Amino acid sequence: MAIDAATVRKVARLARIAEPEDRIDPLARELSGIMDWIEQLAEVDTEGVEPMTSAVAVAAPMREDVVTEGGDAARVLSNAPRTIDGFFVVPKVVE
Known about the structure:
This protein has 95 residues and is mostly helical. 38% of the residues lie in helices and 4% in strands. It is built from three helices and two strands; from the N terminus they run αααββ. The chain has helices at 5-14, 21-41, 73-77, and strands at 83-84, 87-88. Strands 1-2 form a two-stranded antiparallel sheet. The protein is flat. 1% of the residues are buried. It holds the Pfam family GatC. It comes from Phenylobacterium glaciei. Keywords: ATP-binding, Ligase, Nucleotide-binding, Protein biosynthesis.
C-alpha cells in the first residue's frame, strides 16, 4: 500500500501535527514501507496458533476490587480548559 504526500498532509492535519513540507515525501516513503511490512505479516500462516496477549507468560497484576468514593470530579475538571455537564470538551480531530 502506497501512502502519498496528500495522505500524509491529511493525517498530519487531522492529528494536528505541524509537519514541514520538506518532510512530507520522506515521511510518505517511511509510512509506505511500514504498510508494506504490515501487508507481509498477513502472509504468515497462523493456522492453529492460539491468540495471545503477551509474548511472555506473565500474569497481570491484580488489585483488590474495593468500592471507593471515587475521584473528585469537580477538582479534576477544574484544570480543564472547557467543560460541559461534567465532561471535558476537546476539539474535534476526526472529520
